[in-house]
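Handoff note, outgoing to incoming analyst
You'll be picking up this chain. Sequence as last confirmed:
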Amino acid sequence: MLRLLEHLPRHLVRGVLGPWPCRYPDRGEPPGPAVGFLQETLRWWDHHLKGLRTGAMDEPLLRSWTRGWRGDDTWPPPHVTPVTYALQGGPAPVRSPLHTGLDAGRFAPSGGDADLPPDQRAEDALSACFDVAVPSGGPPVEVLGHPVVRLAVRADGPAARVTVRLCDVAPDGTSVLVARGTVTGASGTHTVRCGATGHAFPPGHRIRVAVSSAYWPWVWPLPAAGAPAPGDTRARGPAAGTHGTRAAAPSGDPGGTPPGGFTLDPAGCSLLLPVRAPAPHDAAVGFPGPEQAPPLGVGVPAMLGAPDGDRPPLLVVRDVARGVWRLEADACSGEHGSVRAYPDGLELTERAVETYEVDEGAGPLSARMRAEWQMRWHRPDLDPPWHAAVEVRAEAGYDTDGLLVRTELVCTGTVGEGVDGGDEVLLHRTWEKHLPRP
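Most recent structure output, in case you need it:
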């Protein structure tokens, strides 16, 4: 969005940047706040499609939320100043376990209880951290734009995958994720441009730069040079369930150091924050309250004995015996549940499970993901009743040539009537694609 505001003609663009999940801003999903988004879109289209004077283009070029609503008439605005903070300390080795990143939150948060990243202290403990104190007696450090971290990296191997998280650390130690970014490269100086953010670091808090060499499953782990392909058991310890001591070191590294590590030289590291000073017209920026149509009247039937009825929206499982970490996500645990009944008699059943797995002992090539999504439309009130279903299964993981992605699509539906009728496969397709090792 910020790039569009900077380069498009002013009479064609306006931007709103707020703390919302992947839902419309009038819904009030956390962290909020709810605004009159429908009114905003109506006056925008009335201006550009009907030529009506609605005041849509009289708003600031960018309206953004930090400690409240802010307004900027240009981007970048003159009152956003790049402030550089030097990172202090001695050389910092970074060799994060492969499961670092499991507390990253959902890829597309929709306001669910488990969507946003939780307290980052567990992730911080697996990273190299550099803190900058916000003076207790001063104003908040208000940031608007892209934080940039400059790192001097000495890689253990040919390349390193560097993930940076910018966190807000409270006096009680709670760590809140603010922004993040990733870069891959050889030894040298790297610039990591984090995602755009609007945030205010309160007085007495600490601005934390946390650097890790893994961030699964958001980022595929970097395979070690010469690492064997999955299925080659020569580099593994004894199989689960056998006698003997299982090797704790990743494949190809008998010393126990996770592959893809590196060392940071703080003398060449810095944090650049786009610090925003208050602007005179900030107080005039705001939105009307949300307006919405009456609910459609969708029912959510209670499912007795449903196998997935108690499935948590996000579950982290550690198999201690095998050294495997698994993240399970239920994409249908949102506001409607997995079964919905519509006023016209249509019933929709939906089930989706995503699984991300990595084996600490087997190394980066063990990373695997699998997704299964099923949707079924049913009209039991019709004579004869009918239904249609779509099932999609996808999986990705390393093989000898790189990253292998497989997808299968199956569409079925009711064909015929009476006892002789039944479901027929209407479409069945599979795809397979090899990608270079990321």
